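Wait, mind explaining this?

_____
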Amino acid sequence: MVKYCPRCGAQVPDEARFCPRCGFDFSTMQQNPQQPMVPQPTPQSMTPQPTYYRAQTQSLIDTAAKVSRYIPSLTKYGKILLLLAIIFEALTTILVTSVLLKSLSQIGASAGTFAPVVLLMISAIFYLLTPIFSAFTPGISINKFSKFIGIFTFLLLGITYIIIAKQSSSSYISLPSSVTFYGVTIYTSITPGIIILIGAILTLLTTFIDFGSLVNPIIQMIGIILIYVYTYGGNFNFESMLWGVAIAIGVIFGIIPSFYRGNQLPMIISLGNSIALIIFTIGMIITGVSQVSASSPPSGSCGLVSASYGVFIAAGALGIITGVLGILDAVFILIYTLAYKTAPNM
């Protein structure tokens, strides 16, 4: 015969006085012999507690469920603010080129001198139109028409810089290699214009010619990097000094479906997008801080110069706000992706 220890539930011989496991004294039960000895569950039979990993996973899922409700709003308003920031950047360039045209007309400059300034203004107008067509596209996707206008903008910009460099080379005055005024950069060297033009042509080729799902993105990435090298610090940087890096990362992750189509693909693509968004928005904050730190024009400056400064500051302020919202949005997307292994509804 056996009996059970009322303290730990261990089986012990009927004649045993003490439990060999916990040391319980069975003689103390003689005072109440009618009390049934109900076997207690052993520690081995108890339901195991959730592991640390399961607890952390559940916590991540709970957090993702909470933040997912904010992602659509953050994405929507972030895009609107980015659109406004880019428009203000473009307006700054238009105002600055207006000042240049006014100055050239006052000194009676030749038509050839006017040409690159007019081209620069036209480039800014197309740049202003670039984000408008993507304002109402779902999520963080970019409209094809926006891409085409953006490429055309950089084509014009490259040609503009080449013409300016040609005119500068014939000047008897020694000029610096570049001059920047409220984000409007003028290069007197021909190299930036050629590099930007090559980058725009390469990117444009992938729009009309299909080189394959692997080659096309690589050509696009090369073209974007070439454009980015000479535009990251000016008013053609989509309000982010890291825009080229962010797009290149997005393109790299876009190549993955060419050789992997497993169940984890939606998660991988979403992770790539969130990383690219974080980098882009960090660049927005850097750009915005740089813009709002610009020096005010000297007293007595014409109204167009003062307007250029005001619009430039506004672009910077919008860039900082959008950057903060964008980082928050990107972090929420990242949390959701890690929890649910797919992209959130944006």
Notes: Residues 303-340 form the longest helix (38 residues). The CA atoms of residues 87 and 128 lie 5 Å apart. DSSP finds nine helices and four strands in the chain. Residues 31-49 have pLDDT under 50 and may be disordered.
